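Our platform keeps sequence and structure together, in a single record for each protein. Such a record has a labelled line for the sequence and another for the backbone structure tokens. Nothing more is needed to write down the fold, since each code stands for a local backbone conformation. For reference, a complete record is included directly beneath this paragraph:
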Amino acid sequence: MNQQKNSKPLNPYVGGILTGLLIILSVLVSGNYFGTSTSFVMLFGMLEEAILPERFAQIAYFDVVRAGISWQVLFVLGILIGGFIAAKLYGNFSFRSIPSIWKNHVGTSKKKRYIIAFIGGTISMIGARLAAGCPSGQMSSSILLSVSGFVSMIFFFIFGIIVAQLFYRRGEK
């Protein structure tokens, strides 16, 4: 296998087109649209059902969404495995608790990194649940010409640009 350390990244427009085609292929083959945030709810629901079955039975959400392993959970697992394989193939895989961009802009404290990552992840997950879907789910709803999908994507881009500007403010590329 050819390892291309620090190879040129994929053009974002090509990546966007490929993602759109992959969503269409997903619908044609499986009848399912992209989405990942519900998979975490399904897994935690499965855990809650095992530990606190009386409490789980009272949650109406699980009358609609089945707790447990589903295609969506396997989709998330595939993303993790695919990312690992791609990183190994291109020679970019490494275990780092603090990425260099974080180190350069925020510092080397692992505790601070983990706390901020946990808070950011929690805020992202709450936002995904409030928006009735994560960014990949919102891409799928945009394909259906859903207004909420387009509004969500606009805000993802706006806040993505703001966060990128905060982290790259010192000129690191």
Remarks:
- The chain has a mean pLDDT of 82.
